[in-house]
Amino acid sequence: MAACGLDFGTSNTTLGIGIGGAPSLVPLEGAHRTLPSAIFFAPGREAQIGRAAIDAYVEGTPGRLMRALKSVLGSSLVEESTPVGRERIRFRDVIARYLTAVKARAEAEAGISLDAVVHGRPVHFVDDDPAADRKAEDTLRQIAESIGFRHVRFQYEPIAAALDYERTVRAEEIALIADIGGGTSDFSIVRLSPERHRRDDRVEDILANDGVRIGGTDFDRTLSLGAVMPLLGLGSPMKRGDLAVPNAYFHDLATWSSINRLYNPKTLREIDEVVRDAARPELVTRLRRVVEAERGHSLAMAVEGAKIATSDQGQGSVDLGWVEPALSANVDRPRLASHTDDLARRMAERIGRCLDQAGLSAERIDALFLTGGSTGLPHVRAALIATVPDARVVDGDTFGSVGLGLTLEAARLA
Fold it and tell me: pLDDT tens across 156-172, in order?
């Protein structure tokens, strides 16, 4: 039986197999081990995935881009259909097409047929809704089986990251694993050691497990709503002074999984009515240009890019010159933090819940292991570290730790 570890993430996907007894992530796009979780449908052409999908969209190829595919799991959207050219496709079938392509690429690269998978999953697909959470896992299991995996197991993503980190541990310790992904933030407190690493049953070593549905795409959305959408009319008044421009359009435009909802004649007619009745119609006209040109994903990618640049260099900019000459939104670290501090605070609160669940004080944590793209945001990193200030901070493979840990787990199936 050939088994793999599959980290299907909101932003990126990795797939790993054991090579010579060691876990290795398979290149899924050229030399890249990570594959953006994106798919592009162009009329009369086979769907493209990953960077090729994003490039086709950015280059202006007619068609439909979908990103953050994982975010529909646990929501009613997963069973709904969405227009793709002249047909309608269920969101679960979109995910299946994407994962089918991922599996095929991995099999071609490795030269084997994969029939077993350890799928990563967040601690909570949906916060405070066990029924919806079970449904999300069941849906992902059904999709995995439908694309050819005969054996499907799940492992919590922070536990997988812990298994990867444990390979470097030289003595027993208690570690807090923080996996801040594109769609969720997951935390585990785990007892680790070289001896324990060899055990098959690790249940007693998992001291706490918790998570919250907040991730990198939420930072994108919140930053967009705070810094960009006001330039397109969000919060501006209607001619009737007691009313503001309807905000639903802006929330859809700022949310990766909802952008495509706006692309229909009915929405354009509604926005035309808002332009007519707005006190500042020139702002809402900018919104109309974005929707009419179906450039919502371009806007979202520009916001994401500004967030990353601000994290790395201290400042960034969202260029909106294609909407209106010289239009832009500038972002620096204080502004990014002011818009997203509440998200960082809510993440840190979950760590407190984890400590309570484990019955441990913060001083008992030996190491804080950080993985996931949003751990690079300075104010997020600071909020996480502040919860366990005496712990040694360890930076994992930002986009690979979970996939490597899942691959270690998959080796037990082979």
Answer: 999 999 999 999 999 99
